[in-house]
Amino acid sequence: MKLDPREARNVLxxxxxxxxxxxxxxxxxxxxxxHAPFARDGEGAPLLLLSRLAEHSRNLAADPRASxxxxxxxxxxxSQPRVTLVGELRPVSVSPDRQDRYLRFHPEAGGFLGFxxxxxxGFETLRVRLVGGFARAGWIEAAxxxxxxxxxxxxxxxxxxxxxxxxxxxxxxIGIDWDGLDLRDGQGARRRITFRQTPADEAALLAACRxxxxxxx
Length: 217
Known about the structure:
By secondary structure, the protein is an alpha+beta fold. It has two domains: 5-145, Pnp Oxidase, Chain A; 152-212, Split barrel-like. The protein has six helices and eleven strands. The chain has helices spanning 5-13, 55-62, 96-105, 142-145, 152-162, 202-215; strands at 17-23, 31-37, 39-40, 46-51, 65-71, 82-91, 118-133, 136-141, 171-176, 180-185, 190-194. The strands form two sheets. Strands 1, 2, 3, 4, 5, 6, 7 and 8 form an eight-stranded antiparallel sheet that branches.
């Protein structure tokens, strides 16, 4: 079944944690599944901050092949949208702007950066499996999956230009990409607002963000 890559990207973008499956180094041939926070970088690729002492990090040191899975909603898990990414997860160096983007989504992670055993890992997606609901499932190839890049430095400038939330809205923007806007409220909860159409340029992107903010309640 042909599925919209934007739908899959927005399912991923709405989540803050993934189920992380790695190849077990202790039990050869067996998968090992754990739970980890993540954010996306300016190219839409998953970025994880992991301790080198964690079991999944030890597994990745021996074999970078991995899979990430997220699911949305509180209802019947069998009917909720979910997406699985298959690819490789490796240590990466990140720019200050990329690190800032991660911390906007996970501010609690700032305390881990001073620990020598934590490092960033970037996920290279090879294929994506989207289950959009009952009888709606299919594979998405990497070339289709890739999001239109928005460099973290440009995103930061757009966030400054966008400013805060309208008075009384109670939410502030923390992330912008070509598919949607991410907001955080005063209690720390995050909300993802998807755009109906992909903006043509940065001016249209800002306009879409302002419309999303105005409609946020």
